[in-house]
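Good morning C.,

I know you're traveling, so I'll keep this short. The sequence:
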Amino acid sequence: MKKITVALAGAVLACLAVAPSAGAAEVSPRAADTFYKCGFVPSYSSANGNALYNHCGETRVKIIVENIWFQDTEKCVYPGVTDIEGASRGSKTRDAWYIGNC
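The tokens, ready to paste straight into the viewer:
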């Protein structure tokens, strides 16, 4: 009985030692992007105070960025979070939406 208990304790410790590294490998590199909803993220909802676009798809897409002061612009974004206001040097972005593939 003592040998079984020692073997079981050893197996449990081995699993605990391996679990953190195995779990870290399975985490998506875009896991942080799930913090935001897909699509336009207004500046008041973002961590850095800039408007963002969170593209939840697998390929690049084209969006239109509507700015308060300037003409609307088209922009291609990669999957994940893109700081669309930072690229326009802090101009206030009103909205952004998907219009097709790049």
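Safe travels,
E.
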